[in-house]
Amino acid sequence: MLEISEAKESWALIFGVVFVRFTEPMYRVLLLPLLGWVWWTGRGLLSVSKARRRTILFLRGLLITLIVLALAGAQWVMTPNRVCRRASQMKGANKHAN
Fold this sequence. Notes:
Layout: H1 4-15, E1 18-22, H2 31-41, H3 50-72, E2 74-78, H4 80-97
Antiparallel strand pairs: 1-2
């Protein structure tokens, strides 16, 4: 049976512990005003049902967020320590598979 520290470590390896790094972090400043704009334009959707309006606003917000993250150069980064551990575990798994 796994000890608590080993269980936490395996949990982290399964779900991955990642960080987000930005190459152009100043673009993140655009996110709040643009999401405010999305909310403000949603006021014009009064003729649409409530569920449909929420879906439209969610999709618009998601699209704006993804565009801003792309402009900011968002990168998912794993720490080198985790990468080395994952690589060594995969090598060990390949030995057992053969």
